[in-house]
């Protein structure tokens, strides 16, 4: 065997060993009795506060923000956007030219117009990934602890499910299906009372949101696409979010009771697109 | 962990903007974030609600009457992430020392909670006091 051939064989063998080792390291995919991936459980998706690094001292003192020094090196980082897919998607949707002035107007006046600031339901996809998933062969149930309050979505895994009320709604009517090991949830029949994200991102009742949840070991990658051809220039592909399995059970979500806006002395705001 | 998703809403000007969840009015729209004031009193009530929790503190006045101050604070999810509970903020009925941003609307009994120091010395820093040395 020539040196070149030996090197090539060694490289191939090394890659194979490395691949096998990687596969061995990866947590096994839990599955339901029907063979589908088990997505049930509590999932930490960062919740918009993944930047928070609280510190606790020996005497029980706690520093929540503005702490010095910053979080100690090696501290576990909470869930955040999936790094492998960091380049996918955008923070905000793109509107047709004739609707851009309306978005800008709502953006400037969001302190007075944003429904979430008044404890209204956030809608989809603004609510983000679920905090807990309950699963059976017939349906999924998504539970949310949102700043606007507790929310749930029932996602039948079959078409034609009769619902108690077919009115347009804040979180729409969802239907799920499996594409291989990915759960695909398509939701429609929304009202137009929510925003897609901050900054005046309104939508119409033509909105359709497709979510894709793919479990890999102890994580789920959540992807979403919002389509509203009446006002959006193109389907809005959101930046993927990573959901990390948690052993900490959900607490009862706190109610949303707005008490701040009457104190405002100007229209200032800051945006945090989800 | 949760969607302050919704995030969520904490108008904390001292914080980097989070990547998710929250739209929101600015903290400086309600409070003068260049100043702080201090009072000592007893926590009489905690509103464990979103978008912001509120801590009520009864302060004895020189004439013997009680004046109740109201302090806006963090959303419940941020409290929980820091390991704080409603019961912990309610405390044991002993006096606490509060540092807060004053309200811009002229209400002297309204503030934004920066520090809550308990009688046993335990200190909770919710945000940095303007100009203060860091602990």
Write the layout of secondary structure elements.
The complex is a heterodimer of chains A (274) and B (135).
Chain A: H1 3-25, E1 41-44, E2 55-56, E3 62-63, H2 97-108, H3 110-113, E4 132-135, E5 139-146, E6 149-156, E7 173-179, E8 182-188, E9 208-216, E10 219-227, E11 236-237, E12 241-246, E13 269-270
Antiparallel strand pairs in A: 1-4, 1-12, 2-3, 4-5, 5-6, 7-8, 8-9, 9-10, 10-11, 10-12
Chain B: E1 24-25, E2 37-47, E3 54-60, E4 66-72, H1 76-81, H2 86-90, E5 96-102, E6 110-117, E7 123-125
Parallel strand pairs in B: 4-6
Antiparallel strand pairs in B: 2-3, 2-5, 3-4, 5-6, 6-7
Quick overview of this protein structure:
The complex is a heterodimer of chains A (274) and B (135). By secondary structure, chain A is of the alpha+beta class. Chain A has helices spanning 3-25, 97-108, 110-113; strands spanning 41-44, 55-56, 62-63, 132-135, 139-146, 149-156, 173-179, 182-188, 208-216, 219-227, 236-237, 241-246, 269-270.
List keywords for this structure.
heterodimer; A: 274 residues; alpha+beta; Lipocalin; ten-stranded antiparallel beta sheet; two-stranded antiparallel sheet; 3 helices; globular; disordered N terminus; B: 135 residues; mainly beta; 2 helices; 8% helix
Structure explained in plain terms:
The complex is a heterodimer of chains A (274) and B (135). In chain A, strands 1, 4, 5, 6, 7, 8, 9, 10, 11 and 12 form a 10-stranded antiparallel beta sheet that branches. Helix content of chain A is 14%, strand content 26%. Chain A is of the alpha+beta class. Chain A has a domain of 162 residues: Lipocalin, CATH 2.40.128. With 135 residues, chain B is mainly β. Chain B has a single domain, classed as OB fold (Dihydrolipoamide Acetyltransferase, E2P) (Beta Barrel), CATH 2.40.50. Chain B is built from 2 helices and 7 strands, in the order E-E-E-E-H-H-E-E-E. Chain B has a 5-stranded mixed beta barrel. In chain B, a hairpin with a 5-residue loop joins strand 3 and strand 4. The longest helix of chain B is centred in the middle third of the chain and has 6 residues. Chains A and B meet through strand 3, strand 5 and strand 13 of A and strand 1, helix 1 and strand 7 of B.
């Amino acid at each position: 065997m020539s040196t070149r051939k030996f090197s090539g064989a060694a490289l191939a063998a090394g890659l194979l060993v490395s691949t096998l080792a990687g596969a061995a390291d990866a947590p096994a995919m839990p599955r339901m009795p029907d063979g589908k991936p088990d997505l049930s459980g509590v999932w930490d998706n960062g919740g918009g506060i993944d930047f928070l690094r609280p510190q606790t001292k020996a005497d029980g003192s706690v520093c929540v923000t503005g702490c010095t020094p910053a979080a100690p090196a090696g501290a576990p980082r909470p869930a955040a956007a999936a790094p492998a897919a960091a380049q996918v998607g955008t923070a905000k949707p793109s509107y047709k030219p004739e609707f851009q002035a309306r978005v800008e107007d709502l953006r400037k006046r969001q302190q007075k117009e944003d429904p979430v600031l008044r404890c209204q339901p956030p809608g989809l996809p603004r609510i983000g990934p679920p905090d807990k998933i309950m699963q059976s062969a017939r349906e999924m149930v998504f539970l949310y602890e949102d700043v606007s309050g507790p929310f749930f979505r029932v996602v039948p895994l079959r078409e034609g499910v009769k619902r108690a009320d077919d009115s347009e709604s804040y979180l729409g009517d969802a239907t799920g299906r499996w594409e291989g090991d990915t759960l695909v949830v398509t939701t429609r029949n929304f009202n137009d009372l929510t925003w897609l994200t901050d900054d005046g991102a309104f939508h119409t009742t033509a909105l359709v949101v497709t979510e894709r949840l793919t479990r890999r070991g102890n994580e789920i990658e959540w992807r979403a696409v919002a389509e509203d051809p009446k006002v959006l220039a193109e389907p809005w592909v959101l930046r993927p979010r990573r959901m990390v399995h948690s052993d900490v059970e959900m607490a009862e979500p706190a109610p949303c009771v707005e008490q701040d806006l009457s104190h405002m002395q100007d229209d200032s705001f800051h945006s945090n697109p989800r | 962990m949760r969607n302050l998703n919704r995030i969520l809403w904490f108008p904390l000007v001292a914080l980097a903007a989070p990547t998710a969840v929250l739209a929101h009015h600015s903290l400086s729209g309600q409070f003068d974030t260049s100043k702080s004031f201090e009072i000592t009193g007893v926590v009489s009530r905690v509103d464990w609600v979103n978008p912001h929790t509120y801590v009520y503190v009864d302060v004895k006045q020189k004439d013997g009457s009680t004046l109740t101050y109201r302090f806006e604070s963090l959303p419940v999810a941020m409290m929980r992430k820091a390991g704080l509970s409603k019961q912990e903020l309610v405390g044991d009925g002993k006096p606490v020392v509060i540092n807060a941003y004053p309200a811009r609307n002229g209400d002297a009994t309204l503030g934004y909670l920066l520090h809550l120091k308990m009688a046993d010395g335990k200190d909770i820093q919710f945000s940095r006091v303007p100009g203060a040395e860091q602990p």
